[in-house]
Amino acid sequence: MRHPRPPQPPSPERSAELRRRFAEEARSERPDLSALCLLVGAEGDGSLDESGLGAAQVELDRLAGELPFRPGTPRAWAEALRDLLGERYGFHGVGADYRRLESSLLHAVLRRRRGLPILLSVVWMEVARRAGAPVYGVALPGHFVVGFGAEPGLAGGSAGGVEERVLVDPFDGGRLLSGDDAEALVAGATGAAELTPSMLEPAAPLDVVTRVLNNVRAWAAGRPEQSAVGLWAIELALLLPSHAARLRYERARLLVERGEFLAGAGELEAYAEVVGVVDQAGAERVRGEARVARAMLN
Fold first, then answer.
1. How many CA atoms are closer than 13 Å to the CA of 268, on its beta-carbon side?
2. Largest separation between any pair of C-alpha atoms in the chain
3. With CB atoms 3.0 to 4.6 Å apart as the test, which of 61, 133, 136, 249 could cross-link to 77 if both were Cys?
């Protein structure tokens, strides 16, 4: 089966501006999830210009305006979002969406009404938030969903009434989830036998963006010809205030794989200096990789 060609990247000048704005938004006091996801989309799709960024925000506003005024309970909010986004507009996901880069780009998800669980959840959250709903993201292992109601505390919240919190699965058109349904999603993804309270804690905007970028990296990792996509996903992740130090190593390895031996070797050596503080043997292995990369220039 022939797969559609992924979107083409922006110009270097446009990319530099997008990254500056991404870093600024990520470091703001209250990072805007939709803005960050749209900037990720613009980095992945050079056709998304300023008017397109604005149009995507307007579309989220428009969808929020079609919700009933203050539906009431968390369940009523969840049902209203399901009726509007899942049933009326047909936002949902299918297995084939995992094979498309567009499934991780918010503007494309708004246009196609298809995407990965986390991007569909971003649509649900951003539309609900604009309408005043008590909504938050829930990063279940392997499957992102949305919660309505009072956010659970660090210990999972109190065992209140059934209307206190409601989980929905935007990938399944906004289906309301019972506790057994949520456990089944976790078991299917991880083999875990039960749903733990920590799995239900709200996901912060930057955690959501990190997971979106991880999905982009995973998509590119299985397609060596798309290494440029993996590279920009790593480089955006490195602009987040908090990120894994190992991302620098991944970036260095990817540069070497792309034939940018000198730049990759320099990155490997810089990473070795960081690692050497706690792991001298590991640092020496990385320096060895850097020497090999430099030798490839001869």
1. 24
2. 70
3. 133
Structure tokens at 77: 């909010």
- pTM higher than 0.85 for the full model? yes
For residue 42, the one-letter residue type is A
pLDDT band of 6, cuts 50, 70, 90: confident
Say which amino acid occupies 139: A
Q: Which is it for the CA torsion 57, 63, 69, 72, positive or negative?
A: negative
Residues in the chain: 298
